[in-house]
Design goal:
Layout lengths: L8 H10 L9 E4 L4 E3 L13 E4 L2 H6 L3 E2 L20 H10 L8 H7 L4 H12 L3 H19 L4 H7 L5 H12 L3 H7 L8 E7 L6 H11 L5 E3 L3 E6 L6 E7 L6 E7 L3 H14 L6 H8 L6 H6 L11 H10 L5 H15 L19 H4 L11 H16 L10 H9 L6 H11 L11 H6 L9 H8 L6 H12 L16
Parallel strand pairs: 2-4
Antiparallel strand pairs: 1-2, 1-3, 5-9, 6-7, 7-8, 8-9
Length: 502
């Protein structure tokens, strides 16, 4: 089977034989003699070339009757960034599938959300991924269940719920029909970490990945009491406040191409949504090769790409939270914005109660309802800025603006700039950090206007936009490289992570 999204056959062969991690998730290797499909990094002895077929997606391999390898574990492969990013119809449809839309809505609803016909959507998936939207959804659920069965001690009933199955019987039937073994049989074969309150999951990525730079960016903007970023990890408590859950993300030991996600007190039905949100937040599905190929012809960006080949877009945990931070941060420094936003969180966010309350986790970020009519001048906001915060909160409640995965960049900017107090810079910044949009470009940013020429001069927004056309559809990565280059060197930081109380 061939697909436009597959690398050419020779590249696939070379990547498979050399176990090249840069191609992990870009294709899967199915072996006819075993009936198994693998990642290109699989450590098992390489099969004969005549027994190998390449597929662009795990769901395509499963649709052809192959089952996932228990050794390389395809559920750990990062997503193909070429088809999960940006404004392409397939990219937006995949993002909606990742949000679980097909769990309770028909394919026609997915097609309507991305503004194409159902037949055309099927054709696009077949042409580009070699599978169907329903197939992607089904494989996504089963592979997540397989990961939970392999890596955790969650009861099988909870695993079924976490994977989106309302019936344990249905889950057992589908799992056994697809993988030719019962869920409990897989669990017996796979070693797991000792049982405890904290679940540990791998979040795979395609190297190179600059996790240190990611933490640097997030740490400079971390809100005291809401989130905690130290030298090795990012942590926060998530709602509701009365029964909060806790998460922490750190590097997986021994150089494995994965982040380590620790979860505590997260309901099974919310686990997959948490994982997908963190994959976006830490930009784990990006393809550095494709991005570098689009940007390295620019003489200003070329040395920056060589210096930081693994730089990713650091999104935020929640789009509304990023929006309020951005409004507060207009025309003031990052440090000042952090101070004022922390006051807002303390004044209007729900206090965390119970064992997860600690010195570093005291409040949840305020909800739109809490801010829509709040008196914000007491925390240091001007009347105009306070009015904009309330306007944004009310617009989110009304549905005039949102962070919908189906929205194109143009639609997103148009809707947000229709709000009083929100200009193109803020809207594009929200697209970059709220959506993780790879082509978001705040052309009015003063740092970018000075950093691109890098000779003491400053470009206009129009000049900057014209120059950046050659960077599309990855302008957001150019923004991060230029911002990072303009930042002062990081200071030594505490390497001891903060643990929640048990």
């Amino acid at each position: 089977m061939s697909s436009p999204s597959l690398p050419d056959h020779r590249t696939c062969e070379q990547a498979r034989l050399s176990r090249d991690a840069r191609f992990d998730g870009l294709f899967f290797t199915a072996v006819s003699s075993t009936g198994i499909y693998c990642r290109p990094v699989c450590p098992a002895p390489a099969p004969k070339a005549e027994n190998v077929t390449y597929y662009a997606a795990a769901s395509a391999a499963e649709a052809a009757g192959f089952r996932p390898c228990l050794r390389c574990r395809p559920e750990l492969a990062p997503g193909d960034g070429a088809w999960r990013r940006g404004d392409d119809v397939v990219a937006r449809a995949l993002k909606l599938i990742d949000t679980g839309l097909l769990a309770d809505q028909p394919l026609s609803a997915l097609a309507a959300r991305v503004e194409v016909g159902e037949r055309q959507l099927r054709r696009l998936f077949a042409d580009r991924l070699g599978t169907s939207p329903i197939g992607v959804h089904a494989t996504r659920r089963l592979l997540f269940a397989k990961q939970l069965l392999t890596e955790t001690h969650l009861p099988v009933t909870d695993v079924a719920m976490a994977a989106g199955f309302n019936s344990l019987r249905r889950f057992n039937t589908v799992f056994k029909d697809t993988y030719r073994m019962a869920p409990r049989d897989l669990r017996k074969r796979e070693p797991r970490e000792a049982a405890g309150e904290t679940l540990v999951l791998r979040l795979g990525y395609r190297p190179p990945y600059d996790f240190t730079a990611m933490l640097d960016f997030l740490r400079g903007r971390a809100l005291p009491g809401v989130e905690h970023v130290d030298g090795i990890s990012y942590a926060r408590v998530v709602g509701p406040a009365a029964t909060p859950g806790w998460l922490r993300v750190s590097a997986w030991p021994k150089g494995e191409h994965a982040l380590r996600l620790e979860l505590r007190n997260i309901a099974p039905t919310g686990m997959l949504a948490v994982v997908e949100r963190l994959r976006r937040m830490f930009d784990l599905d990006a393809d550095p090769q494709v991005i570098a190929a689009a940007l390295r012809d620019d003489p200003r960006l070329r040395p920056l790409l060589r210096k930081r080949p693994g730089l990713r877009i650091p999104s935020g945990w929640d789009g509304f939270e990023i929006a309020i931070r951005a409004v507060i941060g207009q025309q003031i420094s990052v440090a000042a914005a952090r101070t004022v936003t922390a006051r807002l969180a303390q004044a209007f966010g729900e206090a965390i109660v119970g064992p997860l309350h600690s010195a570093v986790h005291t409040h949840l970020f305020p909800t739109p309802t809490a801010l829509a009519e709040a008196d914000l001048t007491a925390i240091g906001l001007t009347k105009a800025r306070a009015a904009t915060v309330r306007t944004v909160a009310q617009a989110v409640l009304d549905g005039r603006v949102d962070f919908d995965a189906a929205t194109t960049l143009e639609q997103f900017v148009e809707r947000w700039t229709a709000l009083p107090g929100i200009g193109p810079w803020t809207a594009n910044y929200l697209a970059l950090r709220g959506l993780g949009h790879p082509d978001a470009f705040p052309a009015d940013d003063l740092v970018l206007q000075k950093s691109l020429p890098n000779d003491g001069t400053r470009l206009t927004a129009k000049q900057l936009s014209l120059h950046a056309q050659a960077w599309r559809p990855w302008r957001g990565y150019a923004v991060l490289h230029l911002w990072k280059d303009a930042m002062p060197p990081s200071k030594p930081i505490d390497q001891t992570p903060a643990e929640p109380r048990t």
